[in-house]
Amino acid sequence: MMGMSGREEHIGRARVPIPPVFGKHVKDGKGFLALLLTLLAATALWAQAPPAPTTPQEVEQYIKRQPNNYELRLQAASFYMRQGFHGAAIPHLQAATRLRPKEAFAWIGLGDAQALAGKLKEARASYERARAIAPKEPLVYRGLGELYLHEKQLGKAKQTFLKGLEVNPASLDLLLSLGNLLVVMNDAPLAVKYLKRAVELAPNDAEAHYLLGEAHERNRHLNAALKENLIAIQLNPSYAEAYGRVGLYYVKLTRYKEARKYLEKAIALNPAESHYHWALGDAYFYDISDPKRYDKAIALYEKALKLDPNNTNALYSMGMALSRRGRKEDLRRAIPYLERFARLVPEGPEEIQPYYLLSEAYRRLGDQKQAKKYLALFQKAKDRRKARLTRVFATKSFLDTAEAHVRLGNRYLKEGNAQLALKEFQFALKRNPNLPAAKEGLKQAQERLKKQKEKK
User: Fold this and answer.
1) Does pLDDT of 27 surpass 50?
2) Same structural domain for residues 21 and 44?
3) Tens digits of per-residue pLDDT, 388-421?
4) Which helix (H) or strand (E) holds 351?
5) Over 276-336, what HEC string results?
6) Is 69 a member of any domain?
7) Angle, nearest 10°, between helix axes 293-307 and 274-285?
8) Which residue from 7, 24, 15, 3 is spatially nearest to 308, judged by alpha carbons?
9) pLDDT for the residue numbered 388
10) 319 found inside a domain
11) Which end of the chain has the smaller Cβ count within 10 Å, N or C?
12) Which ranges of 202-254 does DSSP label H, i.e. alpha helix?
């Protein structure tokens, strides 16, 4: 079983971006429909509104009869957005903004539709128009932040969400969006801080508990993560992702029977999710009390890989299970799974063990050439991991002194990187202008750079 992070994230991974106001995945009373109902009730027009359309043809017929009816335009947009036809919603939202140009809600909805349709420039203009009308509206900052997420500018997204919280610190949407983003950015302690605030504001919000659980998991607090996901399930008994997470946590806690109960429920709710089948397979594979654990686990891994051939969790677990069972036919079957896994995960802490398993499988099958090949790859991967850990340790334990920068400079000189060496010696001299080793190192680095330029 692999570590707490990495490939296991696929079970119930927090979505980025958070579904927008008009998005079809918004649930639990949030989003476009809830706001629309509030709007209609406030204007006392709900009783006069026609029944909700059920087909695009009905939508357009309603609009044709009353093209200047603001509420109908919003209903049409809601219909198309819930069906996933974001582009079809745009003309109706544009009409709504023409009918009520000072209504921030319509501009926000238009921004959402444009963003989901890939029209990011137009979406930003719509959100900015909404912000000019309602500068404290949190959904404006949520929309602008998510545009940065689409552009993979996570730092700017974070700053936008934080700015929104400055003007509206009690915005659940912004707290969830920011917490979600911080989980993805691996800033678990800060994510916990904001998501705890979200849970305090909305203790009956299943998504808030779920995201807080994921933040606790990233922060290595497994029992706290388990608790939040169990609350999410109580609040929303159809929350497949939460069942999946609880099952995975119970596997990690070696409570396999309990894990199976929750993973079977997750599969019942969403049978097409490959990772639920993989995790259920692990719940059997690691339960040594079950005499049929290999057969059950392998069957589930096969199902997971049928749903998603690139499920690296299932590839690794399948290779491990077949290798552990150890029959010759099992070893032959294990090899392609492990080789595929090694191709998909060529770098990182998880590439080491598959190489060793491959080496052992080939050795036991009598193919010494392939066994030696994978043993060498295993050793190289092991050395890379050791070097990574050394760099991390050196970074965390680095003292910002002149002597420390001289040591780094000398190391870079030995590695042939005169440019980095030059910077380190300059840093050293800023901290101690009279350090002889720094002066000498700077001179050597400058000479090497000069020779490099002459060769060019």
Assistant:
1) no
2) yes
3) 666 655 554 456 688 888 888 898 888 888 888 8
4) none
5) HHHHHHHHHHCCCCCCCHHHHHHHHHHHHHHHCCCCHHHHHHHHHHHHHHCCHHHHHHHHH
6) yes
7) 170
8) 7
9) 64
10) no
11) C
12) 206-218, 222-235, 240-252
Q: Which two tokens stand for residue 164?
A: 């929104």
Q: Give the other-Cβ count within 10 Å of 299's Cβ.
A: 14
Are 375 and 357 contacting, i.e. CB atoms less than 8 angstroms apart?
no
- Spatial neighbors of 179 by CB under 8 A, at least 6 apart, are 191, 194, 195, 198, 211, 212, 215
Residue 43: pLDDT above 50? no
Same domain, 120 and 170: yes
Give the model confidence (pLDDT) of 232-287 as tens digits: 999 999 999 999 999 999 999 999 999 999 999 999 999 999 999 999 999 999 99
Q: Please tell me the distance from the alpha carbon of residue 201 to that of residue 138, in angstroms, as a whole number.
A: 15
pLDDT of amino acid 343:
86
Residue 96 neighbours by CB under 8 Å, 6+ apart: 70, 73, 74, 77, 103, 106, 109, 110
Token pair listed for 28:
């639990």
Report the distance separating Cα 179 and Cα 303, nearest Å.
Answer: 33
Count of domains forming the chain: 3
pLDDT at residue 163 tops 50: yes
- Give, rounded to a whole angstrom, the gap between the first and last alpha carbons of the chain: 52
Identity at 250, one-letter amino acid code = Y
> In sequence order, which residues have a C-beta less than 8 Å from that of residue 141 and are 6 or more positions away?
131, 160, 161, 163, 164, 165, 167, 168, 174
Dihedral of CA 165/166/169/171: which sign? Answer: negative
Query: Within a domain: residue 258?
Result: yes
Structure tokens at 231: 């609350």
Range of the domain at 159: 6-290
In a domain, 447, yes or no: yes
| Cα gap 124→145, rounded to integer Å | 10
Report which residue type is found at 336. P
Within 10 angstroms of residue 60's Cβ, the number of other Cβ atoms is 14
* pLDDT over threshold 90, residue 314: yes
- Of the residues 272, 290, 308, which one is the last residue of a structural domain? 290
User: Based on the domain organization, do 361 and 251 belong to the same domain?
Assistant: no
Domain CATH for 408: 1.25.40
Q: How far is Cα 132 from Cα 123, in angstroms, rounded to an integer?
A: 14
Round to whole Å and give the CA distance between 85 and 50: 22
- Residue 148 sits at the vertex; the CA angle it makes with 145 and 153, to the nearest 5 degrees, is 125
pLDDT of residue 53: 60
Q: Render pLDDT for 165-214 as a digit per residue (tens, 0 to 9).
A: 999 899 998 999 999 999 988 888 999 999 999 999 999 999 999 999 99
CB 260, CB 280: distance < 8 Å = yes
pLDDT at 219: 87
**Cβ count within 10 A of residue 242:** 30
Q: What is the CA 439 to chain-centroid distance, rounded?
A: 47
